[in-house]
Write a structure and sequence with these properties.
disordered C terminus, 23% strand, Beta Polymerase, domain 2, alpha+beta, 5-stranded antiparallel beta sheet, 12 strands, elongated, 5-stranded mixed beta sheet, 39% helix, 9 helices, 3 domains
């Protein structure tokens, strides 16, 4: 055994603290502390002294602190795959919320066609009721839809998908299918491309201010071929839209007016 009565006292204290692990380990731990000189000298030499209150034992028991070697520094637990996925998801939702707040502040209440701007977890949904195709064109740009974005009809609405600040934006535009149909019938030579109606009978102006004309020629895939003013090289409508689109209609040629005047003169 040992002559150091602190072992018994330490065992009692340890037994109390480690009761859930089993009492048989308490004395072994106290003995190990003494063997390694981690306990102070014997505190009590008589039976009366050994009967001191437990609070006094706790106050006088000395355990020396030993810091772990510098080489045994604990490393941070790396994030699991699930934790990383949760962090990524929360970051996406936070970005979507910021875009939703920005769109709401900038446009809601200022554009009469807006029905709702909703934050839907990691995306934003914009619902409008277009009064004209100008509203549709505006929101295609505001939603970040590329000029070659495929749009599709569902019921009485036209859908488009864009991206704003890295956040997906879904555009639901009510009445646009009807407006597109009206524009198709109103055009002299209509052509539908990527959610827009182009009247090929009119000059088409690109974003750089260049004017393009259609002279009746088409590529093998039936895409209309346009020519820039003062040039002879044809270019597919789709390529022009991708490079400098979307295109806006210019003033239609005054062919009918000139013909009418000439006709009136001939009749005279």
């Amino acid at each position: 055994m040992t002559s150091n009565r602190n072992v018994q006292a330490a065992a009692a204290v340890i037994r109390e603290g480690l009761a859930r692990f089993g009492e048989e380990v308490a004395f072994d731990l106290a003995l190990a502390l003494n063997t390694n000189a981690l306990l102070g000298p014997s505190l009590y030499g008589t039976e009366e002294e050994q009967a001191a209150p437990r609070a006094e034992l706790l106050r006088t028991l000395v355990v020396r602190r030993q810091d772990p070697p510098a080489t045994e520094q604990s490393e941070a637990h790396p994030a699991t795959t699930l934790e990383a996925e949760v962090d990524t998801w929360e970051a996406k939702c936070a970005r979507a919320h910021a875009v939703w707040a920005s769109l709401g502040t900038e446009f809601h209440g200022h554009r009469p066609e807006v029905m709702a701007i909703e934050w839907d977890r990691d995306r934003v949904v914009v619902c409008i009721k277009a009064a004209s195709l100008a509203d549709w064109e505006f929101w295609l740009g505001a939603a970040g839809a590329p000029v070659d974005a495929d749009t599709r009809q569902t019921g009485y609405a036209q859908l488009a998908f864009g991206e704003r600040d890295g956040v997906p934006v879904h555009l639901v535009a009510h009445d646009v299918p009807r407006l597109l149909g009206e524009a198709w019938h109103a055009a002299r030579e209509p052509y539908f491309l990527w959610g827009r109606i182009y009247d090929l009978a009119c000059p088409l102006i690109d974003c750089d201010g260049n004017t393009w004309h259609y002279h009746g020629y088409r590529a093998q895939d039936s895409i209309p071929l346009l020519q820039k003013r003062d040039t002879d090289e044809p270019c597919a409508l789709a390529s022009v839209v991708l490079d400098a689109g979307p295109l806006t209609p210019g003033k239609p040629p005054a062919t009918s007016t000139s013909t009418a005047v000439a006709g009136d003169g001939d009749t005279a």
